[in-house]
Amino acid sequence: MTPVFTVAIYRVIYHSIYSSATYFSLIPVIIGVMLASYGDLTATTLGFFMTLLGTLLAALKTVTTNRLQTAGLHFGALELLHRMSPIACVQSLMVAYLTGEFDKFEPHLLGNKGALILLANGIIAFGLNVASFEANKRSGALTMTIAANVKQVLTVVLSVLIWHDPIGAMNACGIALTLIGGLWYGRVELRGKAGKTMESRMEEGGISKA
Fold first, then answer.
1. Share of the chain above pLDDT 70, in %
2. Confidence at residue 176, expressed as pLDDT on a 0 to 100 scale
3. pLDDT at residue 9 tops 60
């Protein structure tokens, strides 16, 4: 659902629309993820709405990150991370306090090995965020959400290959449909960018379109 919310945010807030081919390419991705994640799951009404809220916030975060880097303030990836990290740290500490995680924390068990693990985790998270921001800036928010959906189904594929987790025929069809949709979307985007590049070259060269 994240691509749907991303398209809706751009349409409602920024009055931006995509080509019909782009909209059609989203259909197999969305349906494929639904089929790939289908299984023996239980849910409540509250859980359902919390899931929808999570996907909406994820789309909003992706769009906001892209806009901060490409429009208005034109933040770089490092500057954006520098401004967001302290806020994220405060939020994490507040959640840890409210959920009682502070009471379960035992500093004397951390040791040198634990400190190195935390340091390595921080370095990896830093690199991941920088790469994510740069990719968002260069490819766009919608492309990032499509890539995230493809990543989800590839995670399922890896779990099957490494741990031999069983999946049903419907899950396999969902994986294939998502990958096909991702390839379709990528092809549509490449054609769109190639067309825009050609138009800009024609304008620079003073060639009018027929």
1. 90
2. 92
3. yes
Q: What is the pLDDT, as a whole number, of residue 45?
A: 84
Residue 178 to residue 171: CA distance in whole angstroms: 11
Helix extents (H) in the chain = 2-13, 20-36, 45-70, 77-98, 101-104, 111-139, 141-163, 169-204
Q: How far apart are CA 85 and CA 129, in angstroms?
A: 10
Nearest to 177 by CA among 65, 10, 28: 28
- pLDDT tens-digit map of 167-200: 888 888 999 999 999 999 999 988 887 777 666 6
Which secondary structure element, helix H or strand E, spans residue 209, and what is its range?
A: none
* Calpha distance 153→168 (Å, rounded): 14
Residue 154: Cβ within 10 Å count:
14
Unique residue bearing structure tokens 């969902």: 174
Say which DSSP state 19 is in: -
Phi, psi of 190 (to 5 degrees): -65, -40
Q: Distance of CA 106 to CAs 101, 102, 140, 153, Å?
A: 10, 9, 42, 37
Reduced to 3 states (helix: H, G, I; strand: E, B; else coil), residue 208 is coil
- Ramachandran region of residue 207, left (φ > 0), alpha (ψ -120 to 50) or beta? beta
Vertex 90: Cα angle to 96 and 117 (nearest 5): 65
Of 191, 162, 156, nearest to 176 (Cα)? 156
